[in-house]
Model the fold of this input.
Amino acid sequence: MARVVVDVMLKPEILDPQGQAVQRALPRLGFEGISDVRQGKRFELEVEGPVDEAALGRIRDLAESFLANTVIEDFTVRVDEVAEAAK
Amino acid sequence: MTARIGVVTFPGSLDDRDTQRAVRLAGAEPVALWHKDKDLKQVDAVVLPGGFSYGDYLRAGAISRFSPVMETVIEQAKAGLPVLGICNGFQVLTEAHLLPGAMLGNDHLHFICRDQKLRVESAETFWTSDFRAGQEINIPLKNMDGRYVADEYTLDKLEAEGRVVFRYVARGEAAHGYGNPNGSLRDIAGITNEAGNVVGLMPHPEHAVEPLIGTGRTDGLPFFTSILKKLVNA
Done:
C-alpha cells in the first residue's frame, strides 16, 4: 500500500470567494500580514500494489477527468513520501 | 402522436416532477428516465432537472456526468438530440463538456432564491424559438453554485457565435429581480452549443408555467412549447 496525494486548486485567474472570506477573517483572529488565501482540495488515494509510472499515469488521468475540472482547476499528483517512510 | 420528452431523475434531483408537469402543460408527454438506466426509452428530447444530484459532492454535476444515463445522453446530444439543462442540469452539461465553461459557487457565498429578470439573447435555439430576441422574462432562480465562468477566449467565441442565450438583466432594483445574482461573467445566465440543440441555464422555467404559482406569469412555458413545435414540425 502506498499513498498518492492529488492536490486540486482553482486556477489563479478564478475568483475564490471562500479563500477571500478566510483571508478577511484573519485580522480578527490576530493574524496580520497574510495578503491572500486560496482554498483547494486534497485527495489521498491509498493504492494497492506498486506505485510505478503506470499507476501514477492512471491516477493523473483520473485527476484530469474527474477529481479536477481543468476548465477551472489545476492539479498536482505526488507520492506521499512521509506515509511511505513511516512504514 | 405527441412528442415524448424525457426527464432524468438522479439521486438528489428536486425538480424532476415540476419539469414533467411543465412538459405536460406544454402539450408533450413526459417520460421519466432513471440515472442508472442507459435506455432513453426513445424519447425525442431530454431535460436534466434542477436539484443537488449526488449531493453536489466533488463539484456540482461532477458525479452525475458519469452516470449510466448520461453516457447515452452525451452520445445522442452530440448526434443532435435536444437537451435542456436547468440549474443542476446546466452544471451537469458543463461537467460533461456538452457546453463550455464551468459553474462555481455564487460570489457572495450565499444560497439565493428569488424571481430573476432575464433577457432572451437568442431565439435561435431548439428551446427558445417561442421567445423573441431582446424579450425580458421573469422566472425563479435558486442555487448555490450559479457563477458561470469561462476563459476570455471562450466567452468571446460564445458572444461572436450568438451562443449566449440568456443574460441576467443587470440594471434595475435587486428587490425586483434585477442584477447579476451570482457573479457570472458577462452576466451570462444560459448558453447553447454550436448546433443549438443543447441549452443550459441556471434559472428555473419549469417553476413558471402557471399563473397561480411562481412569478405569477408563465414566462417559463415557451421553453417547452418551443421544443414541442420543433419536434412536431421536424
